[in-house]
Records
---
Amino acid sequence: MRAATLVFVMLLAPLIPGIASRTRSILTARRGAPVWQLYSDLWKLSRRGSVYSRTTTVVFRLVPIVLMASVVIAASILPLDGRSAMLRFPGDVVAFAYVLALGRFVLVLGALDTGSSFEGMGASREVTFAALVEFGFFIALASLSVATRELSLSGMLGSPALADTWSSSAPALIMIVAGLFVLLLAECSRSPVDDPTTHLELTMIHEVIVLDHSGPDLAMILYANALKLSVIGALLARVAMPTMELSYAMRVGVLAVGLFAVGVGIGVVESAMARLRLPKVPLYIAGGSALSAFALILLLQ
Amino acid sequence: MSTHALLTLYNRRCVSVADIPLLEVEEFAAALASSIASGWRIVSLFGVPEDTRALRLCAVLANDDRGLLGATCALVRQEYPALSTSCRQAVRFEREIAEQCGAIPTGHPSLKPLRRHPPDHAPSAWTLPPKNREDFPFDVVHGDEVHEVAVGPVHAGIIEPGHFRFNAHGEEVLSLEIMLGYQHRGVERLLEGSERGRAVLVAESIAGDTVIGHTGAFCGAIEALARSHKTPRAQTIRGIALELERLANHIGDLGALSGDVAYQSSAAFFGRLRGECLNLLMTISGNRYGRGLIRPGGVLFDIPPTMTSEVLRRVERLREEVRPVAELLFENASVQSRFDGVGVVSAEQCRAAGYVGVVARSCRVPVDVRHDFAYGVYRYAQIPVATAWSGDVYARAIVRWLEVQRSMEFIVEQLAALPRGEVLVDCGALRPSELVVALEEGWRGEIAHIVMTDAGGHIRRHKVVDPSFHNWSALSAAMPGNQISDFPLCNKSFNLSYAGHDL
């Protein structure tokens, strides 16, 4: 059942960016791309050949594989089905964060491997913001850990303690959910931190470090990013809606609803505001972290 | 004040070449420097081969406050003391002269080629050694953590080619050097060598987004030299077309600015409304960019009464539709925080370097050819000059929005009171040995077509100055101290033409 849920999420993942972009086109009165656009893109890319620059080494070619593996491992640490994950051990929270960080590390190495000044700039931005997001993410998880007295993700999200916390200190959890959403936008390179639709190399963060990948490699990277969005979205959905007591079908249904809501939420944010100036991004991330920090203070009382 | 060294002339009024003062190069340099110190600016400075060994330098200056143009000339040998040493505005023009005519202004700070083409306006007896790109390296800033970023000439978007070289410290830009020339087609030679029917097509293609502006200035110069008097109806139709072109481009720019800060809502709406403006030009001229409308002697297509009412209705609807979209853009706090204080051009910089158009008006320098050197329909229907104060991206956006509103008002007024009469009159042979300066306020700013005829009434020199020629240096001047990630936004707020610069 746990494996089935993972497969379900993996199949669903490319739909979430589609939902975000569909929401954006509806809100901005455009016809827009179909909701399954990413599936078509992945199919198209997977049939093409990859081109490798002569300046790149094996590091560059390893990027898609390691990135993909890291996200899948992170997904299997998360209790997607609402009870327990495929991999669980005390402190797996830390593993979850750093397996995702490993993927990013390799991605950045690959970017530096190309020797392009754009990619170098993008890499520098990516790691700067990621370091800040990491801090906020751990505060959010620490708050959850305090609330549930658990040290593993399965314990935190799959235990009745979370539902109890919702009835005892809902404001704290609402702040955690809001804080996680703020961090999700930064972590998954969405507006207002990054602009996934731009073609301007100098403003890009995430897009520019995958600029030199092509064909199936690019497909894997795009897919890994979509899956990462779903994984973090699932974490958010599980915190927001504990489903310990429900049947399996209901729990998966709630997860799908949560992911849909994340997609719509991203779309709403992207159509409601302009992207932040780059120097303001740390403040934005600090704001998200501060929400979690307040939650932690409330929960520690 | 050395106006005795300048021949006063007016927009689109011919003067005899013999009446233009012909000075020694030292006097010429002094005249330029003192005129600029007393409020004139250079419209154009160019070379005309006089005989096999001498080059005639011609300067056309403008005094915006008094609505006057001035012309002066000097004869020089291949090597002459650079004017740039005493006159900063001449720097770019002298680079152009060095490249076009093969002259060597000694003491010039940098004769780096602007466009990289062999000289095509050099006196025939001059020896012209070929120039290597490698002899002119990019400016480098030295420092431990300074890095170079090279962008272009091939860009990710569908835009024209140009190379941008940044020296940056982290995310902060220390200097920006812009290298253009990839679009050089030899426009001036083509205009001089082609018969009139072809030349007007060349004029339409100088910058693809400024068809009406450049063709209007081209025809203005030709008509003045032929003493052809357009009918009021033709002048009004030209004015309407020019304002429609301004509407389309300004609205498109506002959309592009929204897109660059990832504000999707207004980007999409402005994009659609830009299409509406182009469709209006299509209705009038049969081409979305207005090609084929303006010809020497008037316009090829009249606006019949049924079309008048249809265009009026569509402009009124556009007026209603564009306002809420602009409010959406300008009243959004996140957009304001992106536009504010980015890419500032100060009024002092602007006056010193002689920037024109939207860039100048956004830093409180109210230059507008339609107001200062009124021509055609603008002599009867004034459009208020739109200015802003801060000189940043926000100011350039708000000036565009003000001009959009005023252009729509103008079009509505003019359509309602279209003069009667023909739209095309004869435009015959050109008068010999005359010079005319035709200025036009294109949507980017001042377009100048300067035409000189020889003793046989043929075109001896046709000089084109696109506003981009003046304003590209404003972009490099505005960038230092800004975030490198703000460059695309800043660039878009200037939205200069590569083709117009490269000619």
Note: Residues 198 and 204 of chain A are 7 Å apart (CA to CA).
---
Amino acid sequence: MRTDAIRTVNAERRARRAVILLSDLTEGGERVIREAEAAAVEGALGEAVRRAFHTGLSGAVEADGRNYFLNVHMPQPRLVVIGAVHISQALAPMGKVAGYPVEIIDPRTAFASPERFPDIMLSAEWPEDALKKRPLDAYCALAAVTHDPKIDDFALKAALDAGCFYVGALGSRKTHARRVERLLAMGVPPSEIERIHAPIGLSIGALVPSEIAVAILGQVIEAFRARGKAEKGAAA
Amino acid sequence: MENPHLDEGRDPLLIAEDWLDHGRRVALATVVETWGSAPRPVGSHLVIDGDGNFHGSVSGGCVEGAVISEALDVIDSGEAKMLEFGVADETAWRVGLSCGGRIRVRVERVA
């Protein structure tokens, strides 16, 4: 294996981008495939590459009369929650168990206290500051649940700009209609605003905070597992 | 840039790069296939240097010794090897697996 291949894979991983190290077990040699290059890989190998980027599962593949090993490196998804509210108290441990570590941001120190959120990454800061320190990316989900435009709006725009795989906002349809107006005024294109899941969460009749947390987490998982499906269809 | 999502001190691929930067001779072992209850998933890495130092794992510690000695040969010869191990029944019992497992590990030199 070439040292260059390891360097390239590590550079992609440091940048939180998915990458595959493809080893040719028949003839030796390897190739690094970045996620952006997956659509251009042809034949049965291309299908296997795109499937691996989708599932995140490494494995041996036989394609075009050769044996390959695909080692896929996926960034860990993160769930960033704006608002240290009752729903977040249920969502934080659930996300941790499900493999979507939660980070909570809320400038209201009475809400964002370690007593209310033991063992959870917590920033008692404005999203403007917290997201500068730990920027959002395509492997982040963002759920805005404060109901307060002063806190939620900036974070929602930042999530759309960063290409987060999921963006959700708590609030009734009426609340969301006013939010859409504000985001338009902030210069967010309508096609981007449509990516916001609002009202937030899967439609499971959730009533109490813990149930709403389940509905949100389910929707986040659905969005993560749907990543790349559109591209797959287009390539076929 | 420091990346809070990667563990610089324990990540085998990052360590491999660091060792290569320091002129050390390096082999990389990778779990490429598993059957039954294998202790480490496909894609797991063990990185080995020419002096037998290592980081990471391809099993729960059961076969690392054998992989390391094979890796020293690979570092010298430059020829990649495919190794196959059955997890011993006793080991399987201790970690609570009922069936034992088998793994295939590819070892290659990085240069």
Note: Chain A has two domains: 3-73, 78-225.
---
Amino acid sequence: MPSRTSSWFSSPTEAVTRLGDVGYLADDSTALTTYLAGALEKPVLIEGPAGVGKTELAKAITRATGAELVRLQCYEGLDEARALYEWNYKKQLLRIQAAGDGQAWEETHDDIFSEEFLLTRPLLTAIRRSEPTVLLIDEVDKTDVEVEGLLLEVLSDFQVTIPELGTMASTRRPLVVLTSNATRELSEALKRRCLYLHLDYPDADREREIVLSQVPGLDDKVARQLVAVVGRLRELELKKSPSIAESVDWARTLIALEITDLSDKAVADTLGVVLKHSSDVDRAVRELRLKR
Amino acid sequence: MTLLDRHIEFLEALRGAGLPVSLSEGLDAVTALGLIGWNDRTQVKEAYAATLVKRANQRATFDGLFELYFPRMVGSGVDADAEAAGVAKDGPEALAEFTSRLAEALEADDVELLRQLAAEAVARFGAMPGRGPGLSSWSSYTALRRLSTDELTARLIEGLQQGGWTEEEAARVGTRRVDRFSGLVEADARRRIAEEKGPEQIAKIAVRPTIEKLDFLHARRTDLEALRREIYPLARRLATRLTQEHHARRRGAVDLRRTLRSSMSTGGVPVDLRFRPKRPHRTELVILCDVSGSVSNFATFTLMLVFALREQFGKVRAFTFVDEIHEVTSYFRPGADLVDTMTELTKATEHAARMGRTNYGRAFSLFQERHADALGPKSSLLILGDARSNYSDLAVDSLRAMADSARHSYWLNPEVRTQWDAGDSEATRYGSIIEMRECRNLTQLSEFVHDLA
């Protein structure tokens, strides 16, 4: 099995460097899981709070390996026709009408169920590509249970059977990344087929690096203060703890407002960027002893 | 013992702790380890985690077991040369010398050094030689008591304050560092016991249940905080699940009028059936909670969860009682802070107590007297409590009247079913009027709340 690993990553350390080159600072477990996903050709299921870089990881892998990203955004009511493939009915109808009376039914039949009339959706697209592909199945917890069944089939064999065309197997397995916010418990069967990675809030040093790399021009001192305050906020019992996305937003706000020192007043004035519930803001003001 | 045996034992231990590790996942782990090798312990651990642990809340259990089966080191961890050179292993000077080294390390926050010191602490001050077979010979408790962690914390906080930290910050960081050191000492003691007796012995005792399976009645203070943090995510998960299920059942009966109207366009053939939208059915809820000592945690958690899900219910009214009855609905404001609400609720307990001895009968009679109008044909009655009424009058008739006026009624009991009817518990007598269910942990509670909504 490890014969085809060359196209992804050759070791966890290499994964760290290559992801770092494209601007994704991965920690050890992220790098290891990414490496294993490529080496074992297994899908990775990434869970974690919103805004810690789940989707971003898939994009970073794509950039780092020069692959192409095929994205399937999941939502309630997603079905096979949107996820896998669909026949282009309108075009088929046109074809039948254009054929006129001269053509026999058999011919028309063979003709309208050919590649030309097939609309491939993300899953089938990813399977049929012969170049390196990263398949991102985003927010898989939003789908209905039936779609999970479909994913099971596709993700275990990487092949799809279309009755009119036969079975299509992948020539080159895509690297599959599934993300979930854990609003719903996924089935054991799906989890069993995946590697699992829980992305959590990073430690202070890593977060500072991330903020600095995402927001050029931010003063190191301010970044340090910002990360410290965010870390403190995460310790409070808030409805929505700030994640990396919020830290980065905050840093951008500080740049825009030309704040060069994160004093208590500055924190109090810009807290709305980080906390999205009014009760959370109240609690933070109280616990951090800010004056409003 | 070969590596494979250890691997299989580890998987067995994980299964024993409630992680659903399948055969194929075990094989994945072996393949992954074949790729990355056994040179780096953290990588081995992460590879195991990526292939075997599929739920974030199981990670703590996994970490605990991994430390037991693949320990960081083997042996005592104390420098053998120092011992040979005649440095006293234990004694007042040794203790003073060690404490000062530890204080320095804590102030510098050197994780690696602290880990070594933890091992040394257990080796020097945590040994309990000469205990009978079957008793553990290492104790983190003894070691930590000898080192007097309270003094250490005070010293550390003082040191940090001199280093320019504010008082509050120093206290917070100081306590956290000492707590982490205590954790390291406990882990090292476990490691030593596991080394002597085999990991499977200690795996059964040392691993705590995940927060979802934790008994409300046995929760420690830190557990309560963890539980409270769980409420909001749990409520969100439940709400999503409920909305999805409501959507799935949204279609009502066939709407004949609209079906006929739309069949006009297809020449009178009803191709598309039209359906009446289903009216969402919302339960009105009346909750009565016993908030006396032992069961108050359970009651407040249930209340918080129900109010976090308020959109799913039509109307919620909540009452607390010990031997008085007190309405607490007004404490729950939409969007209010959980911690504040909890504190206010605890404060409000005194309104619910007159003599301070739980009296279910009195509470039910008073409810019938003052709030009987709260229950109607649309409302569900939910009673939370252990049915321990200090041998007082049970007021069975009042309860029966309440159950009759409500549409549905349920009783949640946080005690293990085997303890029902023991002592002053009146579970059966009350249970004959209102169906009584066991509800000991978050999993059972969320299942019940889901069925209710």
Note: The interface with chain A takes residues 20, 22, 24-25, 28, 31-32, 35-36, 42-43, 46-47, 49-51, 53-56, 59, 168, 225, 228-229, 232, 236-237, 240-241, 244, 247-248, 335-340 of chain B (CB under 8 Å).
